[in-house]
What does this fold into?
Amino acid sequence: MHTMNRIYGYLRASTREQDACRAKQVLESFAKNVSQVVSGWFVENESGATLKRPELFRLLEIVQQIDILLVEQVDRISRLNSQNWELLKYQITGKGIIIVALNLSTSHQFMRTNTDEFTQRMLTAINSMMLEILATVTRKDYEDRRRRQSEGIAKAKESGKYRGKPKNQVLRRNIAALIRDGCSISEIVEHLKFSNKNVINVRKELLSLKEEYSNP
It folds into this structure.
């Protein structure tokens, strides 16, 4: 019989403007429907197309063999290219971690404890194949969207309509306030979790305005 260990939920959104915890209630309800409880949650706002995801790797350090990594969709774990997906998959399979995703129906049976060994092995084989397919599809979807975005920007530039990505004015005002208070760039980056480049850009804008007013 299959004895299940702990269940860990992983929640991810690509940007800080998105709510990474959006799917938490859905995953909790899913676990409750099969009489299970999520032992812990790991949440981060990082792109699924990169391996630079501290919370995911902290989770991978904690989990034990046959623990479950519960996600809303496979793309929460991976929008990686083939090489990086192989690296991540090696760590997951090497520890014997089971991925259960709401959009991967073949994985749902792993949330039940009454699975015999033969069924367990069959499900593992089928689930691995389906996981590979979904990981490939999510990567292609990511690349297609990036390509369409680039084509749209190029077309807008040709017609003179492209104005660039909208600025997060609230965050920029917070950066400006911290700069005026004498905080260093590294302190602002750490405090606001904003990129070093954007903090430097805001500081340049402030210096430019200061010079403009100083030299009417």
